[in-house]
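Project standup — Tuesday

K.O.: blocked on the structure for the chain from last sprint. Re-posting the sequence here as requested.
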Amino acid sequence: MKSSQALLRIVKDSRCIAGKILLAALCILLTMLLSLLCPELIQRLTDSLYDFWNEQTPIDWQSFGIVCLILAGAYLVKTGLEIAKMRILNQNVTNYFTAGIRTKLSDKITRLPLSYLDKTPNGDIIARMNSDVSVLGSTVHTLFEIGIEGILSLIAITVIIFLKNAVMAAVIAVFVPLSLVASLLLSRRSEKHFNEYREENAKVYAFVEENDTGFDTVKAFRMEKMQAKLHAALVEKAAKKAEKGYYLSGLVQPVVGLMNHLVFIAMCLVGGLLAIKGSISVGAVVAFILYARMYSAPLQSIALGFSYLQNTVSSAKRVYGFLDLPEMTEQEGRKESCVGEVRFENVCFSYDPEKPLIRDLTFTAKPGQKVAIVGPTGGGKTTIVNLLMRFYDYDSGNIFIDGTEILSMNRADLRNQFSMVLQDTWLFGGTIYENIAYGRAGATKEEVIDAAKRAHIHSFIESLPKGYDTLIGEEADGISGGQKQLLTIARAYLADRPMLILDEATSNVDTRTELLIQKTMDELMEGRTSFVIAHRLSTIVDADVILVVRDGQIVEQGTHRELIQKNGFYAEIYNAQYASIA
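H.V.: unblocked you, prediction finished:
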């Protein structure tokens, strides 16, 4: 994406606050007019005092006082308008512009393929939503500083001084282009370093997110110092990139300041010479000097704006590059009901084209059957479920549900046919009631409680001081991993969908709890097509079909008894597991 395209996207997204921007622009224009008026008023006062002191010309004190009051009022109104402008921009940019972009990023995540999210560190996405979007918000201010406070002020001041005196104006005209050229050259050199800084900053976010997630492991292995060193190394690398970028952009203001001082000196010398010769009045010299000083503000605004825009462009490319990522294609095919027949035909899939995983996978799950999927780690068990849920789309072959090819189905409708309980529990920061009710929109309190009872977690919830209103992560610090798993199982009970996926659903519960929930889980699976991924083979001995998966292929299938009698790979796993227990 080109820099100009990135800036145009920012302007386009700022249309949501167009009315407020126009109001802020009006405040800036009025402020600029008052700023241009003040030197003229000061010139009148200065000339009156000069004539009175040197030529004994009487002063009209009434008019003199009125001009003083107008001057004071102009500065007060100017200050009020500047405050109003900042409040308008700050509030609306934060509440609407940046919030709107972050909302777009959040929505975009839901439409991205899972493969992209799996490959992208969470910290990198967080950096785009947090740091990079904040930079874009500041850009709206920057564009105002360059476009109105900078360029318009320069044009207006230049016109006024040329009308007043061409010689004095020529002095300013010599130095202004030099300031602008220096600003542009330094700003362009800083863009490369800002791009590199943004990339390194994303790595810092990713490291912090991973470190916080695995904090218990870090503490257990006493790797705090090592993690701190790694973090310091990443921060130092990012800081060096930032230092180079900010150093070059930081040179802009001193260079422009030098030019402004030279202009000021030149104006004083030339103005004094012209005043001595009688070409202009002393008040006019004072007015010119004030206009020369006024040049510094817009020049610095433009200079800082150019340097800041390089940082902005880097962030904009990351934000809009994310928003422009290809999304999952969605089909219009609807599926309102489901019997539960699932058929895989010669399905092939690989995460990496050079490393095939699922190869010519074929099997049929009849309606209401309990299908267990077992095998060694990395053999493709969870991948089969990912393909069935269309978290990933397979490379070749076909998967049918009730005779309908799932690639022709709407993903939301497809997933609405399944309840899932995963090995990794996921609970959000809300009440226990809200976490269970997440399984079905509009569920009543009675239905939530019934689901909790069936999952054998109701008694524990009732023992908590606030019961179902207990907040996860705040008031429920005593919830164990197994109890969290039971809450997710209760969520699946509440969903009450025609097909069920259990991915190591009982891996985090003790043997006694496992026995307690096994019966109710059997009741839940009754009449539903269920897929159970399990390493603990005791949980699937009653399965209608057991698929033994190794290296992405089904090497055996049958009931528990049939596979034990066959004395093959399944029997080897089963005997090894229970021999180790013994």
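K.O.: great, moving the ticket to review. The chain has two domains: 89-323, 342-581. The domain at 342-581 is CATH 3.40.50.300 (Rossmann fold).
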